[in-house]
Amino acid sequence: MRLENKVALITGGTSGIGEAVADLFAREGARVAITGRNESRGHAVTARILESGGEAIFLRTDVRKAAECRRAVDETLSSFGRLDILFNNAGVFFPQTALECTEEELSDIAAAMGLQAILSHKPFGQAVPVLSGCYFHRVVRESAPDNHGLNIAFIRFTSGTTSARKGVVLCHETVRDRVAAANKSLRIGAHDTVMWCLPMSHHFLITIVLYLSRGATIVLFRHVLARAFLEAVDHWKATVLYTAPFQFALLARDDSEISLSSVRLAVSTTCPLPQDVAEDFFKRFKLPLSQALGVIELGLVSLNADDPLGRWNSVGRPLEDFRVRIIAPDGDGCGEVAVRGPGIFDGYAAPWLPRERVLRDGWFHTGDIGRIDADGFLFLIGRKTAVINLAGRKVFPEEIEAVLNRHPAVRESRAYGRAHPHLGEAVEAEIVLTEPGADLQSVRDFCRASLAAFKIPSRLRVVNDLPRTTATAKIRRAVPASQHD
Q1: I need a labelling partner for 63 at 20 to 30 A (CA). Which of 48, 185, 290, 428 fits?
Q2: Alpha carbons 59 and 356: distance in angstroms, whole number
Q3: How far apart are CA 3 and CA 469, in angstroms?
């Protein structure tokens, strides 16, 4: 058993998902401590586990009170001598997202989910310190929560790269459907060990929840040094890598003899995969990188597991249960990507906007511009709201940035359109240099070798930093500061 002799503390373990997890963990050999306020339900759940040969205790706990939370942990340790797993299902919100959300957004989440308390890494309001770097906030409700008839499990705010941030609401049933659909392609099982080095608050449902629900092992790794990461992969015999192009680029530059012979799947996510990273990684490890398309409102839509080498710049074919189509394609087959399938979000929070008012005939319009080739592979080109319109021609900032970022003098860039009296918009770009005083003319010449003449930025503006979103640190696609000079 994967959980044999492990000890799990499950808050809210007397009903719903908490009760189901308690039963599952017990069947897998774990000893479980269940908290809740309903004593009769708590004793009924523990009695059922004990009758089936498991070990369980019930701890009457009000998670709104920090002292009782501490007592539950202490009693678990006293009863079992250790604590390996904490599964929270008791109306307490404890995400890394609390670092990124404003107090207003946290209040919106608490109201939508009917939360009683919030645990966070930073103090605000009448916070009570629980542990070092952990603060307890009691939620004072001004009115009864309105869950809109949903069994809400999760709210995450969009990054806000091209528009205002929106709280994406998912109920438990939606999470279940989303995880099941994703795993038809990922095929995660108890035999897998996943190396993890991304923020859990940004990648949680079709990763962490999926891995845990299938009994996989997760190795949390905080270092970004390639050698240390490779040594950990070798030590733990990891089978799945799920990280960003930045991490894969570091690994590709490693000159040791360490291989990735145990890895069966390497998924590149968070941003487009540069061609040189895909090629260098395969050359070093003889392992292809598979790009995936994940959307907060949809889950995992596609995964390029069929042709990651030949179509390195594709996010693959849609998953088995999803359908993807291109809306209003142009002469090159490019148009907005629309998706339908299981696990679509239930609505936006604050103000509440139900799914039915967002979907168009059952389709979710992603705002991404893409095309589908003759074999059904999806290629993403850019964001609909970021497209530059130059004399009737569509120019995608992502294409220009990909070229600029390959120049050795450019650390990162952001292309955009500036209003032009005759052309509609003119292409310009902000660049962050690797070293001060770099020759900008060499950058323009470099662009001429890879871009059509009308796509070359008419102006390059050197900046110290690019504006980024608070939540995900992605480059913000809003109006750049240079347009207000």
Answers
A1: 48
A2: 41
A3: 39
* Element spanning 292, H or E: strand 290-295
Global pTM? Answer: 0.64
Confidence tier at 37 by pLDDT (50, 70, 90): confident
**pLDDT at position 97:** 45
Lookup: tokens for 12: 């809210």
Q: Count CB atoms within 10 A of the CB of residue 261.
A: 11
Radius of gyration of the chain measured on its C-alpha atoms: 25
How many beta carbons lie within 10 A of that of residue 469, not counting itself? 19
Residue that has been written with the tokens 């979907």 in this structure: 359
Q: Are the beta carbons of 326 and 372 closer than 8 angstroms?
A: yes
Residues 152-191: tens digit of each pLDDT: 888 887 765 555 678 889 999 999 999 999 999 999 999 9
Q: How far is CA 245 from the centre of its chain?
A: 14
What the chain holds in terms of domains, given with CATH numbers, is: 7-88 (3.40.50.720), 170-381 (3.40.50.12780), 387-463 (3.30.300.30)
